[in-house]
Amino acid sequence: MKKFMSGNEAAARGVYESGAKVGSAYPGPPSTEIFEDLPQYAPELYCEWAPNEKVAAEVAYGASVAGVRSVCAMKHVGVNVAADPIFTAAYNGVGGGYVIISADDPSMHSSQNEQDNRYYARAAKIAMVEPSDSQECKDFMKAAHEISERFDIPVLYRVTTRVCHSKGIVELGERENVAAKPYVKNIAKNVSAPANAKANHPKLEANLRELEKYACTSPLNRMELAGSKIGVVTASIAYQYAKEAFPADASFLKLGITNPMPMELVREFAAKVDKLYVVEELEPYMEEQIRAAGIECVGKELIPNMYELNPEIVSESVFGTKAETRDPGCAIVARPPALCPGCPHRGFFYTMSKHKDYVVCGDIGCYTLGSADPLRAIDTVVCMGGGFSVAMGMAKAFEMAGQTDKKVFGVVGDSTFFHSGMTGAAEIIYNKGKVIPVVLDNSITGMTGHQENPGSGLTLMGEPAKNILIEDVLKAYGYENIIIVDPQDLKAMQRAVDDAVASTVPAAIITRRPCLLIKKIKHDIGLCRVDAEKCRGCKACLKVGCPAIFMKDGKASIDATLCVGCTVCAQVCPFKAIERMGE
Amino acid sequence: MSNVKSILLVGVGGQGTILVSKLLTSGLIKAGYDVKMSEVHGMAQRGGSVSTQVRYGDKVYSPIIGRGQADVLVAFEKMEAVRYAEFLKPDAIAVINDHEIVPLPVAAGLTEYPQGTVEAMSGAFKTLVLPAAEIADSLGNSRCMNIVLFGALVKAFGMTDIDWKEVMREQLKPSILEINLKAFDAGMAL
C-alpha cells in the first residue's frame, strides 16, 4: 500500500514496522509529529512524552537494556540535554536496538541555533543513519535497529526540517515481530563504573571498525554511476538538491550511514571520477573526514555552511548559474510573529514592560515572544530551563557589583518548569538568590502545538494521570510566599509582583490561565469594541501588542474576527474607551 | 527533471493554504505523478507569512525550490505575492487574491501597508487577479475563499485534465462539500 506521508509520519511508521516496543520523546520542532503520530500503533508499542530529552533518552536506553527495540526523539538542541546518557550508552552498548532521533533545523525555522548534530555521532562514537526522504525515513528505521543490534551500538537517526516536514509517496510494509530478548543481568556491560568502562571502550572501537566495513557494503550507501567527469558525495536532503543541481552525467555516492564514514567506499568512488564534490547542508562534516583521508574534494569553499540549501543555491554556488528572476519593485512589510489575541502571557509581559528597573530572564516557548515589539519585556533567552538560572547569575553579578536598583525575574513556562526549570528553582532558593521565579502556567506545552506535560493531567496515549502541581513543588523547595495570579487581571498581576518584590520570605509567582487554543476547555470568549467618541487616539492600547488592535483614521479599532474579549487593552485605556460587549 | 512543475502557495497563517495543497497533491498522485510537498511549521504561525510548495512530474527529487523556479504562484494575500516573487520563473503565472491582511507593524501605526502590490506583480508577471474573499462571501461562506483560489489556479495553470471535483468529494466532509464545489466553479469561471 502507498501513502503520501511527511518524513515524520513515515519515521513513526518505521518505528512501528521495526517492531519497536518502547518510545519516549520531548516535543520540539521539527521532530514533534513523530511521536504525535505514534499512539495509533498502540497497544503494540508504548509511547510517552518525557519531561525532557535526557529522560527520554534514558527511558529508551533502559528499554533497550531490558531487551526490546526502543526509540527516543528530540529536536537538535534536545540532544544537548540528552548528551550525557548517550555518550556513555555508546560504551555500554545495547540490548534491543536503540535509536535516538535528532531532528536538526537548518535555517532555524523554529529554533535558537542551527547546530549540526552529525558531530554528536562522531563525538559520542555512535552509528549514524541519515534518511533523505519520506520513504527512507520509514525504511531506514528498521535498518537502524538492525545496525544497533548487530554492532551493539546506539544509532543517531539524524533528520532535518525538510526531511521531517516534506511529504512524499511511501510504500508501506508490515510490522516485524521482534521478540524481546530475555533480560540477563550483566554488570560488566551495563554498569559504567571506571573498570567496566575501561574494558568497554576497546570493544566500542572494535565495533566501530566492523561497522565501517559494513557501511562500505550496506545498501544504505549506494553508488549511482553515470559519467566519469563529476562525482558527488552527498547524504540527507542535500542529495535531493544535488540530483537537480548537477548535470545528468554526474555520478553520485549517496550515503545513508554517515558515521562511521565508509571511507574505502568513498575512495573507490573518488577513483572513478575526475572531480569529486561533497554536497552537504551546514558544516563540512563529511568533507573534513574525506580530506583527512587524503582524498581531494571540493565542498564548503563553494557551498554555504549556513542555512538551508536548495537546488538553486547548490547550482549557483557550484556552477555559478544565476537564477533568472523578476523584481516587482515594490517594498513590503514583515509579518513578525506575536502573542495570539487573548494569550494569557500578554498581561504578565505588559506588567513587566512598565518597569525599567525589572530585568527579565526568559526561556524557550511562546512566551519568548514577550521580547518582541512593542512589549520588549525580556532581557535574555538562551535555552530550556535557563530562565531561572541565568536570572540567578545576573542577580549575583548585580550583588557583587553593588548594583541595587535592579529587580531580577526568572521566567519559565509550565512544561519548561518540569523540563529543567525545577533545578533552577532549587538553585535560587538554596543559594539565596535575589531572584523572583515566575512560572507562566498555561496548562499545556504551547509553542510546539499542545503536547501534554506532567502538569496537564493526560499522557501521550490519552490516559488520565495525576498532574503535578507547580505550587506543591515550589512549596516543597521552601518557597513560603507563592502567589498565584490571573495574568489577565492587570491590577492583580501588578499586586502580585509588588508583593513578591516586597516579600521578606522566599517568594515565587505562578501566573495561571490556560492557553486559549486548548480545545477541550470551554473558554470565556467575548468581544471588545472601541467607542470612537471616547477614543482620543493616544495609542496606549497598542502597547499591549495585540494583533487584533489597529489604528484607523486616528482612532483605535478592534478586528472582531481576531478579538476574543480578554480585556487587557480595555484595562490599559486611560479614557475607558474600550468595552467588552455582552456575550 | 525538465518535466517537473512547481506550484508555490503563499499567504497568511489560517487562510487555508494547507487544504488546497492537500487537494492538489491528492489529485496529482491519482493522476499518476510523482509528487512532493513541503511546508514549514514555524514559530506562532498565526498571522505570520506561510508558504507551501507542491512539485510534480515523472520523478521529483527536491521537495523545495529556490529563486526563479516556480511555474505558478497562488497568493492568498496580495502583499505575500510580492514577498515570494523572487521564487518565480520569469514566465510564471501569478494567481493573486486581491485581499489585504494588515501585518502587526501596520496595525500598530509604525508603517503603512504598501500601495500598488497587485500592479507591481502585473507589471512583472502574467497575472490573474481575483477578489476571492468577495466571491466567497457572495456564495455565503467566507471560509471557502481558498477553494475559489484553487479553482482559479486549475484554470490559469491548465490543470483541467484532472477531475478535481471527484478529489473534493473524496477529501472533504459532506457538510462543507456543496459550498466548496460552488466555490471551485466560481474560481474556474474567471
What is the 3D shape of chain B?
globular
Described by strand count, sense and barrel closure, the largest sheet of chain B is: 6 strands, mixed
Distance between the termini of chain B: 31 Å
Q: Write down the overall mean pLDDT of chain B.
A: 93
Helix coverage percent of chain A: 25-40%
CATH class of the domain at 5-130 and 159-164 in chain B equals Alpha Beta
Order of helices and strands of chain B: EHEEEHEHHEHHHH
With strands numbered from the N-terminus, the spatial order across the biggest sheet of chain A is 3-2-4-5-7-6-12
Number of discrete helical segments of chain B: 8
Percentage beta strand of chain A: 15-25%
**Named CATH topology of the largest domain in chain A:** Rossmann fold
C-alpha end-to-end distance of chain A: 50 Å
**Number of distinct beta strands of chain A:** 22
Number of domains of chain A: 4
What is the SS-derived class of chain B? alpha/beta
The largest beta-sheet of chain B arranges its strands as: 2-3-1-4-5-6
Tell me, what's the shape of chain A? globular
Task: Give the chain pair forming the largest contact, with residue counts.
Answer: A-B, 56 and 59 residues
Write a brief caption for the model.
Chain A contains 19 helices and 22 strands. With 583 residues, chain A is of the alpha/beta class. In chain A, the strands form 6 sheets. Chain A has a 7-stranded mixed beta sheet with strand order 3-2-4-5-7-6-12, sandwiched between helices.
